[in-house]
Write a structure and sequence with these properties.
CATH topology of the largest domain: Outer membrane efflux proteins (OEP)
Largest sheet: 7 strands, antiparallel
Radius of gyration: 41 Å
Order of helices and strands: HEHHEEEEHHEHHEEEHHEEH
CATH class of the largest domain: Mainly Alpha
Strand content: 15-25%
Structural class: alpha+beta
Helix content: 55-70%
Number of helices: 10
Oligomer: single chain
CATH superfamily of the largest domain: Outer membrane efflux proteins (OEP)
Length: 493
């Protein structure tokens, strides 16, 4: 309730200083700009598409671990061939017609990387040979269980699944970081627009003051109380003030277009930035900030993922020219009969077992060299993690010092603005009394405008510094709460 009341008061004040929205104008608070940018930003959309790609790849890999049901059907296969029979030293013509189908259930076994399949082959066959002058017709069915198990090697399925899980996690981290980076960039564009609006207001105030001083000297010259060169100088000051106002208008329009482009607002829309730049000093414990960052920063998790991926590559490299084996076990029940119902009247079993090994002899040091190269990659990834941790701590300490300094700069800028205002008012009175030239008064007027902008800039710098600290630590020190990065699931909800 208090926040809404404060925002209402700010809005009223904002309108009172000359920014009352006209038709076609839209007032944007920082929160509203962030909401619009979150839905329109090309960077966010691209990141979401990348996230969707890894998500679906992971879903496909998990689906591949479930039982697969396959049916292969050969409705008709006809063959007429002529072969030489060496036993009888004669050529034999054979003709065969076959219709068959195989139904299979294939189940990958993730813990051991084995593959178990249950297969059933049903067929009908008609054969004719001109040697025996007979035609045979029969039905057959072969039901068998097959097991294939790799030996002495790494589990490829488990590693591929883990890699896809890490890719998806990394894509989610990238998306969350894009959201935080978006907040930082939108804030920068937003405050740039706000400063441009303030610059324009100050330029309008300068023109108004210059117009009054011009009228004062014009009346004095007309009454013969001041030299004509004073009038010429006042006229020159007035022209410069008008030129300065036009320049500020152009600057605001350009900055406004930059803001629209990044946020995703149509160029035809007139955007006005409404900002609360009041400063409430926030106490920050730098040691707590560092601990929070080291426990929550997503870049560190990304470096850990890089280490894990490099270790997977090392495992693959170590598997080059490795000693490994395969076990294949097949056990089935085969039957055939001219009548389909009696196909298993006299069944026969068909067991099959095979064990094979791949035994490397000599590879001229290829595997050893490749393993050393990949070990260097793993160490490099570990070094990057340590470097990232030190860089995070360094950045937080710098931001903390900068925030302290910015509070001092705000106090100084506030006092400077007060002194510049008093100085201008004193010298304006001197100008009215003829004790000061137009050029001198213009210097004091410029000084006042400069100090106003310096105060605004110092306040915005502090706001930006707090935002930067929040992004660096994933902790909101203003509201004393941890930041939970936006994930894909939160967006879809």
């Amino acid at each position: 309730m208090i926040r809404k009341l404060v925002l209402l008061l700010i809005t009223v004040s904002f309108f009172c200083i000359g920014f009352t929205p006209a038709d076609g104008q839209t007032v944007y608070t920082l929160e509203r700009a962030l909401d619009v940018a979150g839905n329109q930003s090309p960077d966010i959309i691209q990141s979401l598409l990348n996230l969707e790609r890894f998500k679906e790849s992971l879903n496909a890999q998990r689906a591949g671990l479930k039982s697969k049901f396959q049916l292969n059907v050969t409705p008709i296969e006809y063959e007429n061939s002529r072969n030489f029979n060496s036993t009888y030293s004669t050529w034999i013509n054979t003709e065969s017609t076959t219709s068959s189908g195989t139904f299979s259930i294939v189940q990958p076994i993730l813990p051991t990387d084995a593959t178990v399949s249950l297969n059933n082959n049903a067929a009908w066959r008609k054969n004719y040979s001109d040697f025996s002058k007979t035609e045979t017709k029969s039905y057959s069915n072969n039901l068998y269980l097959n097991i294939q198990q790799p030996l002495f090697t790494y589990n490829k399925r488990k590693m591929e699944l883990r890699e896809l899980e890490l890719d998806y996690e990394k894509a989610n981290l990238n998306y969350s970081m894009q959201r935080l980076n978006l907040e930082k960039n939108v804030s920068q564009y937003f405050y740039n627009l706000f400063l441009a609006q303030k610059n324009l207001t100050i330029a309008e105030d300068e023109l108004e003051k210059t117009q009054k001083s011009y009228e004062i000297i014009e009346n004095k010259v007309s009454a013969g109380l001041a030299a004509k060169e004073q009038f010429y100088q006042a006229e020159l000051n007035l022209m410069n003030a008008k030129s300065g106002l036009e320049n500020r208008k152009v600057d605001r329009e350009n900055i406004q277009d930059d803001f629209k482009l990044y946020v995703g607002i149509p160029f035809s829309e007139e955007a006005i930035a409404l900002a609360d730049i009041s400063v409430n000093p926030v106490v920050i414990d730098v040691d707590f900030a560092v601990r929070q960052a080291l426990s929550a920063r997503m870049e560190l998790r990304q470096r850990q993922i890089d280490i894990e991926n490099s270790q997977f590559d090392l495992i693959r490299t170590q598997a080059l020219n490795e000693f490994k084996g395969d076990v294949n076990l097949s056990l089935g029940l085969m039957g055939d009969n001219p009548k389909a119902a009696n196909v298993y009247e006299t069944p026969s079993t068909s067991p099959k077992v095979s064990i094979s090994f791949n035994i490397p002899i000599y590879d001229w040091g290829e595997k050893k060299a490749r393993v050393k190269a990949q070990q260097a990659v793993v160490k490099s990834s570990e070094l990057n993690l340590g470097t990232e941790q030190k860089q995070i701590e360094l950045n937080i300490r710098k931001i903390h010092r900068s925030l302290k300094n910015q509070l001092n700069q705000i106090d100084i800028a506030r006092q400077n603005e007060k002194n510049a205002q008093l100085t201008y008012e004193i010298n304006l009175e001197r100008y009215r009394n003829g004790d000061l030239t137009s050029m001198d008064l213009k210097l004091y007027q410029n000084q006042l405008s400069e100090k106003k902008m310096s105060l605004l800039q110092a306040q915005i710098d502090y706001k930006q510094g707090l935002l930067n600290m929040k992004i660096q630590t994933l902790y909101d020190f203003e509201n004393q709460r941890a930041i939970v990065p936006t994930s894909e699931s939160q967006v879809k909800q």
